[in-house]
Amino acid sequence: MKCTRNRITNDPPASRGSCHDLATGVRPGALVRRFGATLIALACTTGAAFAAHPGDIDGGFGQGGFVTNDFFGTDEQIYAIAPMRDGRFVVTGKVTGANANGSGGSENLAVARYLPNGTLDASFGSGGMIHLDVDGASDEGRALRVLSDNSVLVGGTLSTASHSDYGVVKLRADGSLDTTFGEADAGAARKGYVRLDIGGPDVHDNPYAMALQRNGKIVLAGITRVFHDGFWYGQVAVARFTADGVLDTTFAGGQGYVVLAPFFGAAGDTLSTIALDQAGNLAADDRIVVGGYTFGRNTSFLARLTADGAVDTTFNGTGRVTFQAANSGGVYSGLYMLASARLTRDGHIVVAGEGNDRGMAVMRFNANGSLDTTFGQQGRSLIKFSGGADEDVVAALALQGNGRIVAAGSATNRATGAAHQDFFVGRWNADGSIDTTYGEQGLKVAQVSTVEDGAYAVAVEVSGDILAGGYTSRPNVAPHDFALLRLFGDPDRIFANGFDAPPGF
């Protein structure tokens, strides 16, 4: 059985069959490169090279390269992906339609685990998925970390009927709640989750990013809301919990959390990301770089805190940098809605989001907060694949071990006539130029359904292949379903991730 792609039709292999070790997630071709010529016999056809092109859809994953899951027939979306060393991977997001008490309606935080071939891992939760309803209101998972014992930490929103709180959930390797973690009622076991109410009653606090420090402490970042001149405005808030799920009052001067001053007056800030390296870690000194944007101001921002939650004034002199999508103060960037940020091996900060021409913008900053003008064109790479008013949106970033930058989101597709959004994954070289060896001149647009699709998360697997996760829609049906796409990585996939393990390895 050959693993090679049909170079005339560009069709992927019909099935991985014996060409993929589902236990390890590593292809025989990669094993040959890793362990030497003595393993040539592992190749599916003697002397045949694995010829898939970087950016091609992996047809052996799910159905034709895609996995979709409809759990309850309602709104279901993936927001984060975490690969595991053995080729399995975990996702988190939300499902709607089944409360813990059996009634339907509210959003539930959802976590699912998959085998390397894209089927749900039945040894996790109930048939591969768990959903958590804390108080009969809306809950969702926004960030994810798999620990060394295969337990799972999820950061997200846990709500009551009147307000939403910061929340961290810990699951055992089998998907059950870890009752050694989090809050507890008097005389009872811990609940497996912890909540933090920053803004008080009737105020919605929503976290969107999570990181672990070297000592196992958990950093959660998002927004709280303040009332000013008759309106509610978002402000960035960063909190820290101990490894066993207790608010850490040694952080931010004893409070356990810090609320950052507005970045552009009373305009409303949104936190999008914590900058992590390719292995999902903070910088070696555990300093915390957060990023986001300000509503209605065409302005994005980065801010840096020390490991213990103080504003780090060694970063741009003030602890923050703002950049606008117009040349009217700050840095001219073309980026007005920062979505994701990553740390490179040499300490640079790569950010990406939506440009002011409805395209994609990728920028790079030095460790001190200044714009790195050696990247792209004067610090930025502005790309628009769709035409005219059609929109391309970057939602997530990942880094490969060779420094290449992978971005995922949604791009406008008019192949069927009417415009609709589809998955896209693009790749940039480390210097900010578009990587034309990837996909189709640097971009792969993939249609899951004939309606709307999009990616919110992307990850580089140990094999070097690329997983994107988000949502898909069904014709004439309003709700979304979980959706996943796998694309082939570099030919030397075993080296593509720099031998670094994904988070928790």
UniProtKB/TrEMBL annotation:
It holds the Pfam family DUF5122. This is Putative delta-60 repeat protein. It comes from Dokdonella fugitiva.
